[in-house]
Amino acid sequence: MLSIDPKEVPTSKLHSYLLGAVGPRPIAFASTIDGEGNVNLSPFSFFNVYSSNPPIMIFSANRRVRDNTTKHTLENVIETKEVVINVVNYDIVQQTSLSSTEYPKGVNEFEKTGLTMLKSDIVKPFRVGESPVQFECRVNEVIALGEEGGAGNLIVCEVLKLHVSEAILDENQHIDQFKIDLVSRMGGNWYSRANLGMFEVPKPLSVIGIGIDGIPSEIRCSKVLTGNDLGILGNVAALPSKEEVIIFSESSNSIKELLKTDNKEEVHKKAQEMIANNDVLSAWKLLLA
Fold it and tell me: Which residues cross the membrane (predicted)?
């Protein structure tokens, strides 16, 4: 058995061991706002519920390992003492992942991910309309666990109001664990879907992706492509060039015939198949053709 002294390995490697061994971890999809009204939305998997009376949840916004900087979420909750914790189900997992892109301060991740901003009843941060359960919270305390890169900051949240989609309730008004279809984080790029098992979601680009708001409207408003499909399409650095699209449109007889039909729904279904097969570049070329 490999034995490891935490003080003798790089923080990044220790971080990998911890996340690989402790899971699946629920995801706090945290919506915050700063004193100037700038909106932020970001997921955190160091998260759980710790008390029912009072209702207390805690998530940790760790200092970045690579440069010891802090995240906008942490800065916002220290400034405003409010947060909305949205739960993540399978339908929004790709958009949730896209929101973890390190956009500059002031960029609205709701717009980048194509998720709906719902006004909260008590707190200022917005709720995620697509999340099946949303918790409006007051931040009672922030506990810093250290000052070096990788150190956690425990954000102790008291639930002031929760909103539950009726679509996930059973006949007794309890949350149906199959209907809610929660996802959780594992190590690396791996997630776990509560009722089906593990699946992989590639991490967002190290460079800034175009986001869902950078997708042409006729594609973004597709009747076929899901939010998860759009989340994957938004995680590209740039769109294919016109020359690349033209070459692709002439690449095979099946593609030529499909484009000749001018049937957008069928084109989008084919692009959806390509996305499912991890051929996102071809999907983009088809959609733009």
Answer: none
pTM above 0.85, yes or no: yes
Q: What is the pLDDT confidence band of residue 273, given thresholds at 50, 70 and 90?
A: very high
Tell me 159's DSSP state. Answer: E
pLDDT in tens, 203-237: 886 678 899 999 999 999 999 999 999 999 999 98
Distances 179 to 4, 166, 170, 176 between C-alpha atoms, Å: 41, 10, 9, 5
What backbone torsions phi and psi does residue 103 show, to the nearest 5 degrees? -70, 150
C-beta separation of 22 from 109 below 8 A:
no
Amino acid at 129: G
Rounded-to-integer distance, Cα 288 and Cα 133, Å? 36
